[in-house]
Every structure is written in C-alpha cells, then in structure tokens.
Amino acid sequence: MTIRALLFSLLGLVILLGLHYAGVVTLPFLENHQEEVEWQPHEMPSVEIQRLNGEALNLDGLKGKIILLNFWVSNCAPCIEEFPSLLALAQKFPKDLVLVAVSTDGSRQAIEKFLQGHGSSYQTAQKNQNVILAWDQTLKLSQDHFNVMRFPETFIVSREFKIVKKVVGASEWDSPEMTDFIRKLF
Amino acid sequence: MRQKRFQKWMLGVLLGLFILPTLSWGKNMEVRSTEALKEIPILHEGRVKPLDTFARVHLLTFSGRSTLKDQSAMDWLMEVLFDPMTAFQRRLFKIRSSDVIETLNLPERSDHRYSFHELSSTLQQISPMLNALHHQEKEARTPSQNQLLEVYFKTVRYYEISRSFSPFLSLFWVESPELARQLGVEVGINYTYLEISKFRPQLQKALSSLKGGHGELTEFQQDSIRLFHDMMKVEEETESGIFRVIPPQWKEDGAEWFSPWAVFHLGKGSPQTAGMIQAWRDLAGSYAQGGASWDTAAQKLRSLSPDLLKLEVLYNEWSVFGKALALYVLSFLLLATSWIFIGRVASRLQTASFVSLLTAGGLHLLGVVWRIIIMQRPPVSTLYESIIFVSLIAVIFGIILECVRKDNIGILIATVIGALLHFVALGYTDDGDTMGMLVAVLNTNFWLATHVVTITIGYGCCFVGGVIGHIYLIKRLIDPSNTAKLTEIYRNMVGVSLFALFFALFGTILGGIWADQSWGRFWGWDPKENGALLIVLWLLWLLHGILTDYVKNLGFALGMVVTNIVVALAWFGVNLLNVGLHSYGFTDSAFLNLALFCVLELLFGLTFYFWIRLREKQS
Question: Considering only CB atoms, which chain A residues are within 8 Å of B249?
Fold first, then answer.
C-alpha cells in the first residue's frame, strides 16, 4: 500500500467516525454506554419453616398469595415498633396476603413475652389466619438461607413466588405508600 | 523458495518458544487448584474485574512482582484470605529505603523483603508519629517520611484483605466444659464467627453472671469473656469492604457490589447471596485439604463470571506485551549480528530479524485489540496505553517501510522504538491496574477515538522521523559518498515528517473542539495544549526551512532528532508540571529519566552534526 493510500485510508477512518456521530452510520464499538440490565426479582427458594406450635410448613404452599417474610428478634426496638403496623397490613388483605413472622430468639419465653406486649393487635390479626408465627431457633433459615443478620428484615414475595423487594429496618407497613405497593402486586 | 521456507521455520520456532508455554495444560492437576477462581468477578477501583487481576495488582503493589517464586498471585491471595496466619509470616513487602528500615528497627536483608508480622508490630509502636505525618501536606514531608507512610498504608490494605472472610474462618473455640454445655457446642472444636454468633444470647446470659461478682474469675467466666471479646474484635472488621465479590441484589443498590461483611452489615442478604456466601464458606473450610468440595465451590463461583472476564484472565496469562518486548529485543540483536556477517548468513539473520519483528508486531497488535475488547473503549486513555499505542504506530510504520525499502532500516526503526517504549511502559505498570477507570472528561469514546488517537499517531510518526534522523546522521558520517542512499533516507524522513505534521495538527484542532465542549473554551494555553502546538510549530518550521532552502538535509536530520525531545517534553514533561486541566497523567519522578533522554538526544544530534560539518569542511 502506498503512503498516499495509507494517508487517505486514515482520513477516511476519521470521516467514518464523524459520520457515526452524525447518525448517518452506526459503529457499535464506539457506543459509550453499558447495557442497562433491568433489575429482576429474585427466585424465592422452597424453604421449610417451623411454626411456633412445632408444625413444619413449606412456604411453597403459600404460592398464589403475597408473602411478607419478616425476620425479627424480641430484643430489637425497631422490631417492636413495626410489629403492630405489620399486623395492621395483614388485616387489610386477609385473603390475599400472608405475614410470616420468623423469630430468631433463643428461647420461647422471649417470644411469648414479645407477643404479650402486642396482645390485642396480635389476637385481632390471628382471627384472619393470615398471620403465621415461626421460630428459627438455630438461625439456619435466617442466616444460612437468607443471610439475615440485621433485624428487622422483611422480604416481600409476589404471587409468582418471586422476591420483589426487601425492607431493612422498621417501616410503616400500613402507610398509604406501602399499601399501594402491595395492591400493585395483586 | 528457500527463503520462504526459512521464514516459515523461523515463525514456527518463535511461536513454539513464546506462545505454546502459555497454554494451560496440567495446571488443574494440583490438589487445590486456583485456576477456576481466577475468573470470579470483583468490583475494585470502580471496575468489575476478574479476581486474577485483583490478585496480581495487589501482589505487585506489596511485593513489586505479579507472581512469587513458589506461588501464583491467586495462590497467594487464597493464602491471605483463608490462612492469614501463614500469610503474615511470608516475607512479602519490599522495602529498599534504609531510612525506613532503620525507623522500623528492621534487620538489613539482601532481598529487602519483610513480612507483615515484622512490620505490623513496629508500625503499631510508631502510630502516633504516622498519624501526625498523615495529617501533614505531602510537600511538607521528606521522601523517607512519604515512603514510611506508603509502607503503613500497604500494611493496612493487606490486613483489610486478610480480614475479608473472617466470618467464615474457624477462629473460635470453647475451653470451659460448662460454657460448652450452655452454648450447646463441643470443647476443642473450632467454630466460625457465623456459627458462634448464633449463641450470642446464651453468651450474654453467661456474661450476666459476672455482675456483682467478686474474687477470682472461674474458668467459665474467663472463657466467656475471652469468647465475647474475640467476637467483638471480629465484628470491628465489618469495616472490611475491599473484597466486593457479591453483585448488587436489590433495585436500590444500582451498580454497587458488596463484600461478605457488607452483605450482613448493610442488610443486603438474599437467597442468592446465601448461595454465593455458602460457596465461599466451603472454600474457606476446604482450603487446608483441597479436594472435591474445594473444586465444587470454585466451579460454582466461577459460573457467575461473564465472558469478558475470562478474556481478561487469558490476557493476564499470555502477557503479550512482555513477549512482544522480548521479540523486539531479539529482532534487534539478530539485525545487529547480521551486520558483522556477509552473504547468506547475513541474509538469513536479517530474515530471522524481520520474522521476529513481525511476530512481535502481531503480538503487540493483539494486545492492543485485546485491551479494546476488554475495556470497550479506544486504547489510548491512560499514559501507559498511550505509550503502548505510540510504539505500535511506530512499529507498523517500520514494517511498512521495510516492506517498501527492503534495506533493514524499517526493522531498525521498529525494533528500537518498540523495545524502548515498552521498557518505558514497564515503569507505569507498578502503579496498579493498567485497565483503570477513566476520569470523567475522558469518558467519551468519540473524542478518545478521534483526538487522542490522532495525536498519538502523530507522536508515533514523530518518533519514526526522529529515528530516521539518527540513521541519516550516522550514515552520513560513516558513508558520506553513498549519496543515493542518503537521498533516499532523506526523502523518507521528509515524508514521515509530513505524516507527523498532518496528524499532530489535526489532533490538536480536534483537541480544541473537545476542550470547548468539555471545559467551555477552545484554547486555554494549557501545558499539554502548548506541547501539542510546539510539535506542530516545530515541524512547520523544519518543513518551511527545507522549502525555502534555509535548512539543508543535514540540518533537517538534526531537526528531526530534536523532534524526539519536543515530543517527549509534550508527552511526559507537561505531566510533571501538575498544573492545568490536562493534569490527569502521572506526576511521579520521571523528571530524571526525561532529562537524561533529552540530554542524550541533544548530545547525539549536535555531536554528529558538527562532526559531519567539520569533516565535510575539511574534505
């Protein structure tokens, strides 16, 4: 290739670059953006929990309903603070939503003491039978399956059994914003 | 025919010597192979990169080498993560400064290497002084004090890496049978933080027994205090966020990655992180024995890696620029050796030299293209990359010149510039990852592809012209009667200088347009802009000089030698000033090397120029 031809080739390359940015041609290599991958909900694993009464329950059985999987411990102030609002939210959607509140306390007494503190609201919520209390005494479920160490942490699971959101810390669960969010999942 | 056969034979030998050994066979035969772990993604310095790069960069930072004698970078990293006690004893840190060695009360060693254990104990003793130094301005510190601080920060970084998986390491044990019974654990078995933290309520209950107590502590109480204290100590390491191997889990995380500690500490856990962290726990647990559980965990983590990272791991392993450098040097040596022979031997050596150059150029080009694919941007965004690219341009020019002229001058140009610039580039690899993130103003592919590429092509052409100038001067001194050859070399020199002027001018104008878009002004008399203008003006002056017959052939050759100095000052020199909007390059002590280069070039040019003038005057 002669020098002149090389020079014109290089000039042509620069013109090509200009045409690319004028929108006449497209050179994918020069596109300076990363593919924006939309966030996808996580698959909810099939896990078995132990209810407070000792019965085993596989969460698979709750498919088709919105599940609030809430991890708490009795000596955690935000857990105490948000529990009534969780119960209130469960009362708003008695047929379509299930609250699975998993305690990670070391003793049953601590759990019972906690529930006594929320006596009336807990009993009211119990009537709808969409509040399930579970006990993760060995921390296998919370720590090993969900990597939960801060409390409270709540996973919101859709009807399609996908985790669509996680809330860390206390939240006003019966607020209009949260209620709307839950409604959109129906 | 024979020549072609020889060329093919030569190419085969070179391929065999340089490329085949990088193919990995037999590497997975080790008990605990770290090959699969190389591709694990990690977010570091703003970029998702393979763990192999992370390991190499850090090993290079701490020890000055990207591999150790008995360990690869990955093996070293795994030892730091999963067997820190052994790693702390390894003599890793290179300290050459005798002032620093004296300050830290370290023994003098011929290899200048010291372990973390040796450094940490002495650094702890002088921590108030280090704190005071850290709060001083860099300019107010002496070079020794800066080096001392550098050692300190390296050890901090090293310790932070070693603590990345402390939740998964079996660091806890219970000695008291009573405490073991209360916690439901066994005496003499080691437990991880995650396992023992499950018994926190029981441990807190056990500690409550200390309240109001008097007299000597029982074994139960002592063990409770020790265990609780160790747990607190590990919890302090929740600050360890350097090992970001957990990708973003939730929408609000954006592109943020997390370390294992951060997953727990910040509430980023999910069933997916649980799977990944379980794999890391399995790795930690099986580190000592290796075997199937190690391999399974490694393969699980590897499966998360995107293809681009696999490409980068291969790039790290092949080390194409190192091989290209070796081949450039080989090519030059073969060419130089051919000068002392005549006839067929000389011809064969020159052929071998050219084949070696082509192989080197091919590897060099492969490396540049590889980087483009990995980084998804043009290959001239850092000083290191610009050096590699300029040398590639010069090599391509040299090869084209050789194909046209067939008189070995092209080989000489390509090998000299290729080798020298590669050596210069080596000095910029110690600063860490050479595929770093760009500063904001550079983060635009259009201007990187046009302005920067054009300017660096201009630099490359200038260096080619400069080397031709050297050749002209030498030729004119040793063989002044060969006017035909000299005229030919002179014409090539003028042609290359026109090329250089075209690209330098075009690149400077494009730079002005970019500056107008980024900084709101076309020209700001920035040192870098002045440097680029200087190259253009210098070349224009030379070319006008020969057009007006003011500058003769000899003067033009001297002028092209000086062009090397002008380009070096515009390219490297302006970064040393550390002023202006263009100061995004490195500003370390390259001054001495730059000054040496300029002095040597000037000395060469002037010596030959006046020597030739004197001889021609006498004759």
Answer: 42, 166
